Amino acid sequence: MTIKVVRGNPTPEELAAALAVVRARAAAAAAAPPGAAPTSRDSWSDPSRIAAHRLPQPGPAAWGRTYWPG
């Protein structure tokens, strides 16, 4: 596997941390039994959560209601 930094100039510590995460994820995927279902997404990252809420109505304070609901 080849990893290439395409933007920025990471420090050796940042690069080591990123590679540790990639290697840990690869090891976990390799250790999973064949045919195992991938883990489900967390509910906070589910885009349908946003669609369930009404969109903000235009008005003087509408900018304050445009944050990601949580």
Describe the structure.
The protein is an all-alpha fold. It contains two helices and no strands. The chain has helices spanning 12-31, 48-51. The two termini are 38 Å apart. The mean pLDDT is 76.
Summarize the structure.
The protein has helices spanning about 10-30, 50. It has about 70 residues and is mostly helical.
Shape: flat
β-sheet strand percentage: under 5%
The main β sheet shows up as: none
Total count of strands: 0
* Gap between N and C termini: 38 Å
Please state the structural category: mainly alpha
Percent helix? 25-40%
H/I helix tally: 2
Unreliable stretches covering 5 or more consecutive residues: none
Provide the succession of SSEs: HH
Features:
mainly alpha, 0% strand
Topology of this structure?
Elements: H1 12-31, H2 48-51
